Q: What sequence folds into this?
């Protein structure tokens, strides 16, 4: 497969398989057997998934943190550093986070997130930014740091455990750096979140799972360095400064291939980050914290055509449908697209009419199998974001909302099975 600038060269196979059993929590739910491997998860089931008991990493917040105070702003943009970024005041249009009233049904939160966030020739970044505006939605765009670093300056990147300048993805063209900067600025001004997908996208041996806490910190520091010095590194004097302070706005990310979360969580704390989306998968249950940081995993959704649960990401549908081949049988594209839509909608309906646990959908800007996974997401956005009681938000907005809820309310919410529709007066007294 020919490498496209700024794209992952090849879809990677799962690195390992782990089997775990969870006991059902309700009489209606049956025992579930999970097989999780990197991006690929299939769950053999005979019915609805039930909420597992929280593991060692899960925790219940003891008290909601105080609301963050925005700095005083005089209404004038403040250029930061070499002019790559600026402060233009508090981000506009954000969800107002308020505690649930007694007996109130929670909103149905849906988070669409994107790994990489490059505006390439396919213009998918701008496409989904436009869709978000059209459907009154906010999304999370996880930027890969080297997408703002010219290939001519690749020696500035010192990846952990790998040669200087190396990466598992291609460096961007100069034009793609400019178009990506334009989309990042517009996405932020539209109310979307910019998070991090780190830098070199290393997986497997010497990837994130093998990195120490200090190596993760090095990767994070370099991410900040690349995005805060793109003007120096590119020599571009014409593109406007990004209208936000990365040190302030980046509050979470997703690790490549969902690897290395234990040490990454330890590294995150020193940066004041509030959530991580790198967990390799969990049931559709209300989030909890790991090491004081909100854990937003990909989720196990009903897989049409078989008694399976599959992770809520395009990569997993690719493996389930065409065994990882990015150009599978074209005769099956229509059926595979519908299967993907049906799985997302089955997961949505299970919680929308049940526990109201947030739905997390993760994707890449890609054209696998004729672009069917992008077309599937287009359909899902149109179907869910305009529904009554639904809020399509960013991960940061969801973290804000969770932070102001009563700890005892969150604990009750986490005890619900995904499809369980409770008497809300008993959950939110």
A:
């Amino acid at each position: 497969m020919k490498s496209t600038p700024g794209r992952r060269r090849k879809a990677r196979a799962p690195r390992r398989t782990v089997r775990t059993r969870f006991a059902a929590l309700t009489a209606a739910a049956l025992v579930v057997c999970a097989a999780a491997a990197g991006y690929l998860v299939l769950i053999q089931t005979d019915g609805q998934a039930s909420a597992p008991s929280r593991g060692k990493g899960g925790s219940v917040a003891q008290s909601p943190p105080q609301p963050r105070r925005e700095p005083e702003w005089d209404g004038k943009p403040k250029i930061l550093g070499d002019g790559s970024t600026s402060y233009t005041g508090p981000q506009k249009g954000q969800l107002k986070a308020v505690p649930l009233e007694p007996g109130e049904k929670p909103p149905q939160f849906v988070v669409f997130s994107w790994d990489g966030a490059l505006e390439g020739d396919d213009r998918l970044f701008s496409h989904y930014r436009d869709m978000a505006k059209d459907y009154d939605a906010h999304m999370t765009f996880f930027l890969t740091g080297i997408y703002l670093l010219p290939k001519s300056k690749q020696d500035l990147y010192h990846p952990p455990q790998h040669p200087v300048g190396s990466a598992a993805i291609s460096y961007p063209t100069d034009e793609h750096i400019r178009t990506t900067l334009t989309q990042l600025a517009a996405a932020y001004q539209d109310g979307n979140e910019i998070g991090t997908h780190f830098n070199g996208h290393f997986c497997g041996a010497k990837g994130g799972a093998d990195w120490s806490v200090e190596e993760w910190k090095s990767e994070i520091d370099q991410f900040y360095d690349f995005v805060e010095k793109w003007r120096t590194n590119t020599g571009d004097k014409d593109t406007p400064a990004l209208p936000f302070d990365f040190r302030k706005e980046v509050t979470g990310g997703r690790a490549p291939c969902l690897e290395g979360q234990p040490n990454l969580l330890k590294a995150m704390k020193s940066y004041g980050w509030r959530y991580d989306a790198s967990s390799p998968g969990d049931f559709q249950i209300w989030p909890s914290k790991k090491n004081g940081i909100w854990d937003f995993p990909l989720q196990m959704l009903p897989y049409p055509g078989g008694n399976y649960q599959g992770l809520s990401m395009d990569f997993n549908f690719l493996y389930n449908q065409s065994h990882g081949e990015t150009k599978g049988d074209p005769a099956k594209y229509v059926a595979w697209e519908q299967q993907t839509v049906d799985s997302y909608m089955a997961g949505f309906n299970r919680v929308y009419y049940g526990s109201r646990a947030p739905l997390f959908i993760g994707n890449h800007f890609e054209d696998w199998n004729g672009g069917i996974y992008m077309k599937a997401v287009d359909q899902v956005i149109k179907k869910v974001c305009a529904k009554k009681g639904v809020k399509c938000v960013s991960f940061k907005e969801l973290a804000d909302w969770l932070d102001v809820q009563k700890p005892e309310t969150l604990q009750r919410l986490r005890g619900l099975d995904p499809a369980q529709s409770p008497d809300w007066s008993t959950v939110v007294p």
